[in-house]
Amino acid sequence: MAPRFRVPVLLLVCAGAASGCQSVLTASTADVAGIAGAGIANAVTKSPALATGIGLGVAAGATAGLQAVERDVHRAEQDRIAEAAGSLDPGVVGHWTVTHRIPIENNEHGDLVVTRLIGGADFACKEIVFSVDTADQTGEHRAFYTATVCQDGSVWKWASAEPATARWGSLQ
After folding, report:
1. Going by C-beta distance under 8 Å and a sequence separation of 6 or more, which residues neighbour residue 94?
2. For residue range 15-47, what is the model confidence (pLDDT) as tens digits?
3. Does residue 67 sit in helix, strand or coil?
4. CB burial class (10 A; 0-12, 13-18, 19+) of residue 76?
5. Closest by CA position to 110, among listed 90, 95, 89
6. Which residues pair with 143 in a beta bridge?
7. pLDDT tens-digit profile of 106-126?
């Protein structure tokens, strides 16, 4: 990678690592992608139309990269919740926790309970209610959500298509 391209890429990585706030992270990604796109376009062409296309391509790539990382973070959280629910009988309260490898969201924890069993011997699923406990400057907060988890071989996996639009938007 040429030295002039290393700085924008480094800025993108630093902006992602330094930000814990989703809106700041999204804006930072867009801003850094714009800077990187301008640098790449300036190095490649003097054509305004081509430079615009390069800039839009870099911005789209940065957004797609951020969304892929967000999906991995959400999948890790869903896997921890499903794992905790898998060993519970209906009505028993359990606990879940997740520590994210990539710190774009806070590590979280909460309680969960299996509300009913669904399926049969070869098709085992559980409907659950779980909490997400967070803390900020204003104090402790608890939010509740519902989901379905199903057994896939020896592991329990998230089975809900849209677990909580208010929580994660349209992105799981």
Report:
1. 84, 85, 87, 88, 111, 112, 113
2. 444 444 444 445 455 555 555 555 665 566 666
3. helix
4. middle
5. 95
6. 132
7. 788 999 999 999 988 788 999
Tokens of 56: 């839009």
SS3 annotation, 86-138: HCCCECCEEEEEECCCCCCCCCEEEEEEEEEEEEECCEEEEEEEEEEEEEECC
**Closest by Cα among 158, 150, 113 to 131:** 113
Name the DSSP class of 147. Answer: E
**Enclosing H/E stretch for 61:** helix 48-86
3-state SS class at 38: helix
Residues 26, 78: Cα–Cα separation, whole Å: 22
Query: How would you class 158 by CB atoms within 10 Å of its CB: exposed for 0-12, middle for 13-18, buried for 19 or more?
Result: buried
Q: Residue 40's CB: how many other CB atoms inside 10 A? A: 19
CA-based radius of gyration for the chain = 21
Place of tokens 């003097």: 46
Which residue type, as a one-letter code, is found at position 23? S
Please report where in the chains the tokens 């806070």 appear, as a residue.
106
Structure tokens at 99: 């520590």
**Full-model pTM:** 0.60
126, 146 contact by CB (below 8 A): no
